[in-house]
Amino acid sequence: MAAPAAPPEFSAATPAHGDAAGMPHSGCGSAAIWKASSTGALGHVFGFLQLSERVQAAAVCRAFRQAVCDAFRSLSSLDTVSFGSRETAESVCAWVKRAVFPWPQLTRLRVNLAVDAGAAYSEFILALPPDQLRAVSLHGLCRRSEVVEALAERCEGLESLQFCLRGHQGHSVRFASLLTRCSALTQLDATDCPFANDGLLRALAAAVAAACPSLERLELRGSPGVGADAMRALAASECSASLTSLQVPATHIGDAGVAAMAAACPGLRQLDLSSVRGLGDEGLAALAAAECVPRLSLLGLGGMGAGVTAGGLASLVSRAIGLRTLKLPSNRFCVTDDVIRAAASSCTGLASLNLRGCGSVSDAGLLALATARHATLTSLELEFCIGISDAGVEALAEHCTALEAVSLRALVLAPISLAPVRALVERNTRLRSLIIGQAGDMATLQAFAASLVAARPDLAVGW
């Protein structure tokens, strides 16, 4: 059913977070579907927002702006503002200019730069005390630089900065300038940011070297402009000693970048190198020799290129003895039974294993995994593992007892039977999510799923 149209007295925006119906996670609804209300009624409703930890400022009633502002004045516990519309930003900023800033707990700000209200955003940011903001998220098409320049004046206490932006390469200079002033930064996320490049990362390295902050998390997922030079600069900076999480999927750092960061970051606990261009066995060997590898708790090596072999992966996994999460999806050839055996025998605390699309894994590898890690394994992803048959599922059912989530979808070369799946469910009493497929026609699957859920109401079954 189509959503009701917003009455003319309301200005609505797409929610920055929440469900499709416009409900923020805190449970406070959007004003976009309200009918005409009295000033008192609107103020009363907005008054309830002070009970929420997170408040979305995504819709403002033009007719009752003053009521909204009066209600905002009472939100002493407000800790997050998310601007999703130009009218919201301009209304709130106009009020901020007329009153003492009332939100001492406001520490998080999310701004959609696709909405052309840069001046209003900047006024709002500049109204904040210099060290109040702790986390900022910028997303959308970056047309103007006022917001970045305003943040540079109010970033003394900034600990987390996320920007998922589209714009021309000149923006990298502005963000580099901002980074040099974020002396308290512990988390930087430039996911899917096309102008995150070696120059931007060199600026970050210079900033942390000068201010000696403790950068702990760095995410550059899907930033193709990031290469080996950026990793060398970071490795040479003081942040390398404090870095605990590095996420660089789909970058171009290659063997040289991986080797540089691995050698310089002894404190790494999470590392994702999925789909890194130019990464081969040489880079994996350098990583395997690094001090951080035995203490890694998460390792992502999905979508490896032709330069990675099963031997290279097995050697690395054998040294990563502290792993709890291992992600190896989309490796049709290099993830073999030997790699699975290495993980099963060496990673004694392994809890989550993603083998989606690993077509070279067979029942023998799954048996080795189930036998060795039956007490620790809680999550197993086997979608499109076309070498798995009933025997592999039977091995899981016979040995594993701690599974909470399992996916068996699209084992297309050897469709699984329902009997071993039922045995798997019966043996794993903590199982909460089961994905099945290719085990019969749809009517059979639906009846089977219904019988499982009838016996285990807490189990979600899909196909």
UniProtKB/TrEMBL annotation:
GO terms for cellular component: SCF ubiquitin ligase complex. GO terms for biological process: SCF-dependent proteasomal ubiquitin-dependent protein catabolic process. Coiled coil: none annotated. It holds the Pfam family LRR_6. InterPro entries: Leu-rich_rpt (IPR001611), Leu-rich_rpt_Cys-con_subtyp (IPR006553), LRR_dom_sf (IPR032675). SMART domains: LRR_CC. It comes from the Eukaryota. Gene3D superfamilies: Ribonuclease Inhibitor. This is F-box domain-containing protein.
